[in-house]
Amino acid sequence: MAAFFRHLRRPALALLVAWAGPTAISAQEAARVRVEENFRRVPNGEVLAVLEPGTPLRVLDWDGDWVHVALEGWVWTRSLQVDAREGLDLVVHADEGENIRSEPSGDVLGRLGRGTLLAEMERRPGWIRVRREGWIWGASLVDAPPATTAGRPAPAAPGPADAAGPASRRPEGFVVAGAGAAVLSAPDGDTLVTASGDTELQVLSRQGNWARVRVEGWTWLPPDAAPSTGATATEPAQGLTPADLAARPDAHRGRVVTWRLQFISLERAERVRTDFFEGEPFLLTRFGGADGPFVYVAVPQDQATALGALVPLEGLDVTGRVRTGSSSLTSTPILDLVSLARARPGR
Questions:
Q1: Beta-carbon count within 10 A of 17 CB
Q2: How many CB atoms are located within 10 Å of the residue 240 CB?
Q3: What is the mean pLDDT of residues 250-271?
Q4: β partners of residue 211
Q5: For 287-343, how does the pLDDT look when each residue is reduced to its tens digit (9 = 90+)?
Q6: Residue 282: CB partners within 8 Å, gap ≥ 6?
Q7: Average pLDDT over residues 102-112
Q8: Sorting pLDDT into bands at 50, 70 and 90, what band is 229?
Q9: How far apart are alpha carbons 82 and 88 in whole angstroms?
Q10: Alpha-carbon torsion 295, 298, 304, 306, what sign?
Q11: pTM
């Protein structure tokens, strides 16, 4: 599967966007996964599977930006066991999880995690067709129908001056194409952030070939950060540890953590390290000091040179997204770098 984030920059936003118009389809009709994405038990909850681009899903309901969907496919019988819980029939018991396919021995739709409960739909020799409901981030779907179910009001019928219907009243937006694009402070200005491929941006205004956009997301706020409105910054909830990740490596994939790490060296992944791309740069670090467990931090190629100036044994405050809680070669957690700061002396 592809890595969770791609960090290549592009020089001009206007040249790297794919315009995405809404598609009018009925509720319960299949949407498709736009990019590799987590399929979760509840919104922002436990990851049940990682789905491949193009995987079809039945849309059941919306909850804000999250979509309640149904996943169906075929799973190798030997990787399942009978387990009647939560109104479901089967559980994935293979240690490394199992593929869910479009048909027996067909295309892979995604990878189910160990312990995922499933409903049995049909059997063939060696295979079982299964179904599971879950949640997926709405921006990661193509052709998702509007939110009209579970008590949500249907969009109003178009009037004489609105013949295009409710979909046309959605804010104009586009999807970043390719590996990503830089969002600038002004046309030809400084880079504020690099939007990864397939990020959805809302257009606020236009100036020639440039578009002023809005992107929403979350960033880590340190407990000692100066508040911008006079409010007191709150202490964040206690985060995960490497031991937590190792105990349940699949459950925490995609979660964001902030750790104080001790830098050891900047490395490049050999071919044998199958959790990395060959040659991908990563930081070798320790969690909790000289006797703590190792942590790998994968870094973007374009940041590797600057990170070569780090001093062995210095402290780093690293925010990263969990790529895996237990790498296949060394059982070490791997993070994808989100941000990094050198720790201040005395902290």
A1: 21
A2: 19
A3: 88
A4: 206
A5: 988 889 999 999 988 888 888 889 999 999 998 888 888 888 889 999 998 888 887
A6: 266, 267, 268, 269, 276, 296, 297, 298, 299, 334
A7: 93
A8: very low
A9: 9
A10: negative
A11: 0.40
Q: What pLDDT is attached to residue 64? A: 84
Rounded Cα–Cα distance for residues 114 and 95 (Å) = 6
| Reported confidence tier of residue 207, pLDDT bands at 50, 70, 90 | low
Say what the pLDDT of residue 29 is.
Answer: 59
Place of tokens 């060296």: 265
Euclidean distance between CA atoms 103 and 109, whole angstroms:
10
Contact 342, 10 (CB under 8 A): no
Of the candidates 202, 251, 239, the residue with the CA atom closest to the CA atom of residue 44: 251
Which segment, 58-62, 181-185, 197-201, 339-343, is predicted with the most confidence on average? 58-62
> Which of 9-18, 99-108, 132-141, 301-310 has the lowest average pLDDT?
9-18
d(CA 131, CA 117): 9
Q: How far apart are CA 46 and CA 112, in angstroms?
A: 12
The amino acid that residue 248 corresponds to is R
Token pair, residue 73, equals 């496919």
Residue 220 to residues 5, 139, 155, 317, 323, Cα–Cα distance (Å): 17, 21, 36, 11, 18
Cβ-Cβ contacts under 8 Å for 86 (sequence gap 6 or more): 117
